[in-house]
Specification:
Shape of chain A: rod-shaped
Order of helices and strands of chain A: HHHHHHH
Strand content of chain B: 5-15%
Structural class of chain A: mainly alpha
Largest sheet of chain B: 4 strands, mixed
Helix content of chain A: over 70%
Number of strands of chain A: 0
Distance between the termini of chain A: 83 Å
Number of domains of chain B: 2
Oligomer: heterodimer
Radius of gyration of chain B: 29 Å
Number of helices of chain B: 14
CATH topology of chain A: de novo design (two linked rop proteins)
Number of domains of chain A: 1
Strand order of the largest sheet of chain B: 1-2-4-3
Number of strands of chain B: 16
């Protein structure tokens, strides 16, 4: 009789801890998903902004067609990457887009008339902010991935993770091409 | 990582608990001084009740009181895109679910504070002086600091601690008066003094009354200062740009004084608002906030270290201030850190913010602000009724978005209907007869208005 009671208690405790660990893993994975959707929102917002900015700038910059074409191409590539939904590919395409955008921003410096245009300034602020938001969302996403991956790897959650096939998520890395190319302007 | 910080409050909780014990002891002592038999328990219960009631009031009304009394103006993405963007950036970085409301208070002083006792209703308030004088990176640093207060739930914590401090001060005043009063009273009425009037008991009570508030204040300031450092560390981590906050602090230090602040809300400001900067050595200015030069020194060193992480901040903090952990080791280890980012492109310029703030205030007063394609901003006073204006610079015609006067038929009767476009601005439209102009204030919610000249009745419809 005593043996039965002990057995029963052990089974209940085990079951409860499996539930708790499973829920923890699901919670962490949901945070990862949420953070990714934040990045997604901002990347798409940027895709919407770029054509507007290019249109506004074109009126002032007749001889910079090449720059615009590059930006437009990079945008298209990044858009197709994000539709596939592969984190690594999105990272590479975004890096490309970052670089060509930074180049375009630099050429703007040569057109003071453009810089006096209120609409343009507003668009530029929007774009800068969206880029910041992408960077910050990436930070939050990578933090979330880190805690999720740790949970998948570490004891005791790793047992539950392998039982229910939780897989590690990819980090979102953007190679800092733009940061290397954009010269620092210090006054 | 951020979810760990919430659990990391044991030390602060301990101090809060000590304050609580102090408060209970004090009110118990008062009870005892009145009634030696059961007064101790009644007094303690009364003290806790007093604190609970005040805390509840602060919990449910605290935020609103601060904002309403200061005539804070709400910032929308339309009225000040940059400020709104910066707050949204920090909200994303902090991984918060709810976007805080943003307010601007008219004040030349440079300061900012966060409110938000409840998690789903938070707000960040900045002074107009702050928006006018800081560049984008600096503003981001300040907003990140305030966001950290929200993230770390400091507002809730400091409110409860502040209310407790207030209660202790109040109780000790009462006890002090009580002892003196009861003592002089003893001659006329026997056995009505403190504990039968034994000198040792009186002495202990007096000491308690004198030292309790001082002790409580020390406890309170200890928590408050630590939380400032912690908010700095978190802000640096969120922005990846510690020098932005450092240079903002430098500017704020010169002119941080803001007149409308109560003592309980002071710890929520980025720099103590009761004292204009420079006076760092005064006991008072150093009370709720750590000295600014120390905060700047830590942030600058963090910037030069190249990697921003909570662990690195902790190391520099130990070198500069004291050997005591701001956070538990688990949190410090969980943070792998990020490389310091570059200065943002517009980071080194103070943009034309002065005009932006002016616009927000005008818009709030009912002015309509139209931006022409040529970039000119046209500000129409609330009394203007024109449907179209010509841009004085490029001569383009701009249509004014105003409500429209329409006719609608309901149940066989036709009536005039005016559809309002906005509930936050003044709106006006001319009557059919042409001799009268209706002016509707932002607060107007009536169903009908009647022309004072011709008596025409116009129905008012509101946007949803």
């Amino acid at each position: 009789m005593t043996f039965l009671v002990i057995f029963f208690v052990v089974v209940v405790v085990l079951a409860l801890s499996v539930f708790a660990l499973y829920n923890k893993l699901v919670g962490l994975r949901n945070i990862v998903k949420n953070s990714w959707s934040q990045i997604d929102v901002q990347l798409k917002r940027r895709f919407d902004l770029i054509p507007n900015l290019v249109e506004t700038a074109k009126g002032y910059m007749k001889h910079e067609n090449e720059t615009f074409v590059k930006v437009t191409e990079a945008r298209a590539a990044a858009m197709s990457a994000i539709n596939k939904g592969d984190v690594k590919e999105v990272g590479a395409a975004t890096a490309n887009l970052d670089a060509s955008l930074a180049k375009m921003m630099l050429t703007f410096e040569n057109y003071p008339e453009l810089k006096a245009n209120q609409n343009f300034l507003a668009l530029q602020e929007e774009l800068t902010s969206t880029e910041n938001k992408i960077a910050f969302a990436r930070q939050a996403y990578n933090d979330a991935v880190m805690s999720f991956n740790n949970a998948v790897e570490m004891f005791p959650t790793n047992i539950i993770a392998s039982m229910f096939s939780f897989k590690q998520s990819d980090f979102f890395e953007i190679e800092d091409k733009s940061e290397k190319q954009a010269p620092k302007v210090n006054f | 990582m951020w979810e760990l910080i919430e659990k990391n409050k044991r030390k602060s909780l301990l101090i809060l608990f000590l304050m609580f014990v102090l408060m209970t002891a004090l009110s118990g002592a008062i009870g005892y001084s009145i009634e030696p038999n059961y007064g101790l328990y009644w007094g303690a219960a009364f003290g806790i009740l007093l604190w609970a009631v005040q805390s509840l009031v602060a919990y449910f009304l605290g935020d609103d009181i601060v904002l309403h009394f200061n005539m804070a103006v709400v910032v929308t993405p339309e009225s000040s895109p940059q400020l709104y963007n910066i707050v949204e950036e920090m909200k994303i970085a902090a991984g918060l679910d709810v976007m805080p409301e943003i307010y601007i208070v008219q004040s030349p002083g440079l300061n900012a504070f966060a409110t938000g006792i409840r998690k789903n209703k938070t707000a960040i308030c900045v002074t107009s002086g702050l928006v006018e004088n800081l560049n984008r990176d600096e503003l981001q640093g300040v907003i990140a600091h305030e966001m950290s207060h929200i993230l770390n739930r400091d507002v809730l914590f400091m409110t409860f601690a502040g209310v407790m401090l207030g209660t202790i001060t109040m109780l000790s005043n009462a006890l002090l008066k009580g002892t003196i009063f009861a003592n002089s009273d003893r001659r006329s009425r026997r056995k009505r003094g403190i504990g039968g009037g034994h000198p040792a008991v009186i002495l202990i009570l007096l000491l308690l009354a004198i030292f309790a508030p001082i002790l409580a204040r020390i406890f309170y300031f200890t928590i408050s200062k630590k939380r400032e450092y912690l908010a700095d560390a978190t802000a640096a981590r969120l922005t990846r740009y510690p020098i932005g906050l450092a240079s903002a602090l430098q500017k704020i230090a010169k002119k941080s004084s803001v007149s409308f602040v109560s003592k309980i809300t002071a710890p929520m400001f980025i720099v103590n608002p009761h004292f204009a900067g420079g006076d760092e050595d005064s006991i008072f200015s150093a009370s709720t906030h750590p000295p600014i030069y120390k905060r700047i020194a830590i942030l600058t060193q963090l910037q030069h270290g190249g990697t921003v992480s909570l662990g690195n901040y902790q190391k520099i903090y130990e070198k500069e201030v004291e050997h005591s952990p701001l956070l538990s080791n688990a949190v410090l280890k969980a943070d792998t850190g990020e490389k310091v980012r570059l200065q943002s492109e517009s980071g080194n310029k103070v943009p034309e913010q002065t005009k932006a703030v002016e616009d927000i205030i005008l818009a709030n007063a009912g002015f309509k602000i139209l931006t022409c394609e040529c970039g000119l901003k046209i500000k129409l006073p609330p009394s203007s009724v024109a449907a179209k204006v010509k841009c004085p610079r490029c001569k383009r015609e701009l249509s004014v978005e105003n409500g429209k006067l329409d006719t609608a038929s309901s149940g066989g009767e036709t009536e005039l209907v005016f559809k309002r476009m906005s509930l936050t601005a003044w709106e006006s439209f001319p009557c059919q007869c042409g001799n009268f102009t209706f002016q509707l204030s932002p607060l107007f919610r009536g169903t009908y208005v009647i022309c004072k000249r011709c008596g025409t009745k116009v129905k008012i419809e509101y946007p949803e």
